[in-house]
Design a protein that fits this description.
Elements: H1 31-44, H2 51-65, H3 69-79, H4 86-91, H5 93-109, H6 134-154
Helix pairs in contact: 1-2, 3-5
Amino acid sequence: MRSAPPWHDAAVSDDEPLPGGPVPVWPGPDLYTLRALVELDLALDTEVPVDAAWTVVTDVADRAFGRGWQRWYGEALTAEGAGDDLGRLLAQDDLAERVLGRLHDRMREDDEAPDPPCDEGYGWYAYPPGTSPGREAFRRSVRRRRATARAALLSPRRRRVAGRRSRD
């Protein structure tokens, strides 16, 4: 029995930079990691065995938020008034964002925790900085779609080709 998948190369570290760019930050201290923690917290109250899943998710949270995440998580829940009502945290995105913001604040304070993601307006865009197709490309596609729909509506249907069956 193998401990690693057959495609895994033990000589290559997961922390080494990829040839095309920087090391991907996974798992990230984001809303999805927080939701996984909350969903597993809720599952612990049921009779479903989640021991292995809890181990995996807590390891992910340790890597994403840092070692003190459990204490910070509890503090953030009580500070935001969620307390023991974790279902409310899943249902209300604004509450989850506030709890995540408190976790990020605690990450900034702790020297051993990883740096939280910065919100400096960086993102993946289809066009280079300073250029944009503007509204003209959108308007052109709307006009083209309108003309195609008009032609399809007003032109006669194509004749049936011999040998094809109808879909009736």
